[in-house]
Amino acid sequence: MNKIKLIILFILLFSVFVLSCKHSGSKKSNISDNIQPDTVSVADINSFSYTVDSVSDEVAVLVIRPDGESEYIIDKPGNIFQKTKSGLEYKYITTGKNRKFPKISDVIHVTMTYRTQNDSMLFDSREIDKDFKMRLMPPSHEGGTIEEAFSMLREGDSAIFKIDAANFLIFTQGKTYLPAYVKKGDKFIFNIKMNKIVENSEFIKQNSEIFTYYIEQEKSLIERLVLEINYPRSIQKSGLNIISVSKGDGRKVKDGDLVTVDYTASFIDGSVFDSTIERNSPFRFVVGKNEVIEGLEEGVKTMNIGDHSIFIIPFRLAYGETRHGIIPPFSTLIFEVKLIDAG
């Protein structure tokens, strides 16, 4: 008898879904407008009518997945998310009137928090800067990424995203190890509001004087630093300074190599902010996959296995004019690197 009731409930809910898709009008199109062309549009929980079970407060919703398959989801309304082709789970909260999405290299101003699935807050952009901004970069890994999440938001939009915690920490933030509280399959819950989008060319124009000031300051600091270093120095066209401490006898690195390195990373004032040696855990990344900052990758490409080098990385080849975790904007970074292996 209970099975018959459940089947009848599904039939009724499906009928409600079909009718609401026909009559929900502007409300549904409002949601669809927020989705990038490469994302499959599916019905948002707020864009159609549904029947709530009076006992459990749950709803049954027919969701069309990116592969064209459909499935019923029975859950509380606040727990029902949609998915993009990459598998990124998302749910829009509010929608803005601006129809422009950010592009790679645009500077985005956001309000953002993220937390664990058990609701422990890990980050709140407002604690760093009320006008928190960053440059939109290419996706940092396969599957749903934070970069894809940003690219789905127009000015005024806000949404919740679920992103694989391990991928975010390792590939997006560049962590070399996972904290104990992160287990395989865990997801971080991101709450993001897109406040403003500034095109890259416009941002540079607006901040040209600031850039010029920091570039000149940086040149002076680098020249003062190298006076204290008694090893051969070369300067790449990009502005990367390479100081050769010692040479190895292995082969040279090439694109596609999985390299293993030990490094100590510091600011130009000498204060260390990261070290694989202290952790006794060498760092690995694939050359040519944009898995590390531009300056570090460019430097490692010049190395042979066994080489020991120091890279003085201008802020333009690191994190630029935006903050990255504990690294302030316009930070010149020093990486002392030993190339252990490549293959």
Which descriptors apply to this entry?
343 residues, seven-stranded antiparallel β-sheet, single chain, globular, Chitinase A, domain 3, 3 domains, alpha+beta, 8 helices
Structural class: alpha+beta
Net shape: globular
What are the secondary-structure elements, in order, as H or E?
HHEEEEEEEHEHEHHEEEEHEHEE
Beta-sheet strand percentage? 25-35%
- Using only CA atoms, what is the Rg? 24 Å
CATH topology type of the largest domain = Chitinase A, domain 3
CATH-scheme architecture of the largest domain: Roll
Terminal-residue CA separation: 63 Å
Unreliable stretches: 2-55
User: For the report, how would you describe the main beta sheet?
Assistant: 7 strands, antiparallel
Mean pLDDT: 79
Number of helices: 8
Number of strands: 16
Question: How helix-rich are the residues, as a percent range?
Answer: 10-25%
At the first level of CATH, the class of the largest domain is Alpha Beta
Give the tally of structural domains.
3
